[in-house]
Each structure stands twice: as C-alpha cells, then as structure tokens.
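User: Show me a protein chain along with its predicted structure.
Assistant: Here is one chain, sequence first, then structure tokens.
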Amino acid sequence: QVQLAESGGGLVQPGGSLRLSCAASGFIFSIYAMSWYRQAPGKERELVARISSAGGSTNYADSVKGRFTISRDNAKNTVYLQMNSLKPEDTAVYYCYTQGGRGINYWGQGTQVTVSS
C-alpha cells in the first residue's frame, strides 16, 4: 500500500525557514519522480516543485524559484522541501505527490505551513 507522510510544517515568521519531509513507503521510491504541491484557502492546488527519480532534474513554480529547494534521499525513501525567505503568501497546506504505476495518483495527507508575524 502506497503511503506518503508529510511532516515539518508549522508557524513561522516572514523571512523564516522551514524544511518539509515526505516519507514514502509501499512502492519503489527510487524510480518515480516526486513533487510538492500546495493549496491555500479558496485557491486551487498548485505545483510547487518537482524532482526526477534520481534527483538530477528539478522544476519550480516561478513564485518559489530561488527560495525553495527540493531534494530527495533514495536510501531513506524521503523527499524534502527546504523553504527559505518565507512570505505570507506561502501560507498553505503542502502535499507530497507521486504518480505511480498505471498512472495512479498518490497524495499525502498534507502539512500546514503558516507564515505570519
């Protein structure tokens, strides 16, 4: 059974940093690309960052380029999102995502990130 478990969210002041983690199980983690999405209240879920299976290729939303870094540790079946210089508009629920075999979408339960003074 595929499971994605996010952690690391919380309340942080503007300009601060957080590191999100997503622990994966139930599938061969190292052969699938992984992504982070976020959804703010009243808005659609949006792609934040994506990383290829081996970690050699990354993509970011324009709104987070230069501030966020996605990485992965295939030995630990974990993907990370380092978030620096956080802004109030980064406030959202952050989700870990992968598309597994047969095109099935898998989502974590989400972790809340709130950026506020």
